[in-house]
Amino acid sequence: MQLDGKTALVTGGAKRVGRVISLTLAEAGANVVINYNTSADEADATAAEVEAFGVGALPVAADVGDYGAVEAMVDAATTRFGGVDVLVNNASSFHADPFPTTDLTVWNQAISTLVNGPFNCTNLVAPSMLERGGGAIVSVSDLSAFEAWPGYIGHAVGKSAILAMTRQFALELAPTVRANAVVFGPALRPHDYDDDRYQRTADKTLLDRWGTPEEMAHAVKYLIEADYVTGEYLVIDGGQRFGHRKAEAG
Amino acid sequence: MSLAGRAAIVTGAARGIGLTLARRLVDRGMRVTLLDRDPAVRARAESIGPLARGRVVDLRDIDETRAVAAATIEEMDGLWLLVNNAGVFEKTPLLEIDPSAWDSMMEINVRSMVLLIQVAAPSMIAGGGGRIVNQASMAAKLGTPGEAHYAASKAAVVALSRIAAHELGPHQITVNSVCPGYVLTEMGADTRDPRQIAQWTATSPLGRLATPDDIAAAVEFLASDDAGYITGESLNVSGGACTW
């Protein structure tokens, strides 16, 4: 699918990696619906950056786990741009989630954002994509889909679910709509990482470095454009998933 | 940030995916050397244009492979991209595979990649980075009866790519494999009939076979600057026939 002239909906598209995804798609000529939850200021700023590429931008607030809110968001996108051609399920949550627990708040939040969120958004854009004859979906996962992240059980289950959903989307919506996933490794330093933790993460990759949001967005763009790739997950992690074995190399 | 001006080697480039890829890379401004055992590779490269150059090499011959690869890299003054695309395919029931046929499949489909990586790596290391893309196949993960030697060779390519990624990572060289599904090229043409093509088409939820351009686009993506954080991966380009 060529992005020029299309409309993309990026959930969590206002800041950090989501913002760079929004800008990358805008640079390729797509209008961008910038979904955000609480980051209204960042969404407005990102919208201005998107418009600087000569395309349309529409910031829309919606908790993706809230079905009614997603319905309203998709309606707004359709009213403004005529429809959604590309959906990037990027919205995420990441909170400490001890197990076992007596407080289900974080678990429920993770499942809502990471399982219900992509389901809601994809379910609501798919009929129009099928009717209009085309669409591409890219959902964002991470390495917790493949290995345990102690302390983040809801997040890991959510990111795993995204891979299963991607396979389902791909097979259920074929041949008209393609669906793929990107699996991000370390892309952007979290605010609470001190220098020591930041370096240790880099050391565990095969390339001895963090990735960049641009590298993540570049992979998202490829999957949107690759007309024979569907049901696939593409890992962009600098080999971090193999990095645990670095010490064994002698 | 673009590939223009950089050097690439593509093996198995006289026809099919390799030739399509070579043309695509030249379109992006790369200097490309096409390697093949078929002497037609020289004329094919000439038809692409001045940025392309064809050389003949038998990848089963260790000395010849090393010599031609070294001379090519010297001539191009360094290397950004090595595409190990050369491969052979044929079907034989497992219980009938001749050991020499097994060896031959492994020599071309796997061992030649090791030889070329060994020659290319020092140059990429000196250049501060590079890209190695190895052509595997959906058969590495799935495959059908009659493909034991082919599938084993392609699974070897996936594993080889993974360890190469590990060893070459610190030098900012990424190594990935591409796993195409069914592609309509000359290779394997004598094993196909329309009914078989229909069967193969049906394996993809997208309802078509891959084109050489679908595969070339995947290689171009992996070769790009911004794909520098992707390594040790096997990228399926199978129209959904393989999802892992």
Could you explain the architecture of this structure?
The complex is a heterodimer of chains A (250) and B (244). By secondary structure, chain A is an alpha/beta fold. Chain A has a single domain (7-249), classed as NAD(P)-binding Rossmann-like Domain (Rossmann fold, 3-Layer(aba) Sandwich). Chain A contains 8 helices and 7 strands. A 7-stranded parallel sheet of chain A has the order 3-2-1-4-5-6-7, with helices on both faces. In chain A, β4, α4 (105-132) and β5 (135-142) form a beta-alpha-beta unit. In chain A, α4 (105-132) packs parallel to α5. The longest helix of chain A is centred in the middle third of the chain and has 28 residues, at 105-132. The N and C termini of chain A lie far apart (46 Å). The mean pLDDT of chain A is 96. Chain B has a single domain, classed as Rossmann fold, CATH 3.40.50.720. The two termini of chain B are 30 Å apart. Chain B is globular, with a radius of gyration of 17 Å. The mean pLDDT of chain B is 96. Chain B has 244 residues and is α/β, with parallel strands linked by helices. Helix content of chain B is 44%, strand content 16%. The interface between A and B is large, with 39 and 36 residues.
Describe the structure concisely.
By secondary structure, chain A is of the alpha/beta class. Chain A contains 8 helices and 7 strands, in the order βαβαβαβαβαβααβα.
**Number of separate helices of chain A:** 8
Terminal residue distance of chain A: 46 Å
Report, as a whole number of angstroms, the end-to-end distance of chain B: 30 Å
| Lateral strand order in the biggest sheet of chain A | 3-2-1-4-5-6-7
For the largest sheet of chain B, list the strands in their spatial order. 3-2-1-4-5-6-7
What global shape of chain B is seen?
Answer: globular
